[in-house]
Specification:
It contains 6 helices and no strands. The chain is mostly helical.
Length: about 180
């Protein structure tokens, strides 16, 4: 195991989950306000899941030599861009398109995360290393959810989307810093 690479991986994914959790509760409210019906909300979430499922099939066709960082980099930079669009969404159809993109990007993240966790951990200590990885990412995620409410009260919900965009961008650069 490359301890330095694993450390940077934990940092980058903790920041990523912080960014994700910072917006997630407000993102759900945002979708509900645009769609305003349970059917529209259900369709939006279903499209998210479907695009995520199909992207896994596509990614599975890539050669084994594909740099694992590519998946996380595409996710981080893609999310950084998409979050800039959220404050400008006014129609439910726009939500559907964004949901398709979010699901696909989520598939990139899951694919890359699992491959890198396997690659960066030592088989003899994998249980411990994966436990530490999930501890730090879950800790940052839960802190972000609480912090997001404070930011929304002091600023605006749009501010949270922009701040998360910057954090996703930083996470993407951290992934690029990882050594193979």
């Amino acid at each position: 195991m490359n301890a330095s690479a694993m450390k940077w991986f934990v940092y980058s994914q903790s920041l990523l989950f912080f960014a994700s959790s910072l917006i997630f509760p407000f993102y759900i409210l945002f979708i509900k306000n645009v769609g305003s019906s349970y059917a529209a909300f259900g369709l939006a979430y279903g499209l998210f899941g479907l695009s995520g499922a199909f992207i896994h099939l596509l990614l599975s066709k890539l050669p084994e030599t594909t740099d694992r960082r590519l998946f996380l980099t595409v996710h981080s930079f893609g999310m950084a861009f998409l979050l800039l669009l959220f404050p400008h969404i006014t129609e439910v159809e726009q939500v559907y398109v964004i949901q398709l993109a979010l699901g696909a990007l989520g598939g990139f993240q899951k694919h890359g995360e699992k491959l890198l966790v396997t690659e960066l951990t030592n088989e003899k200590q994998r249980m411990k290393e994966v436990g530490h990885y999930h501890f730090w990412t879950a800790l940052f995620s839960s802190i972000a959810i609480m912090f997001g409410g404070i930011l929304a009260d002091f600023f605006t919900v749009h501010f949270i989307f922009y701040a998360s965009s910057v954090l996703y961008l930083c996470s993407g650069f951290m992934v690029l810093y990882l050594k193979r």
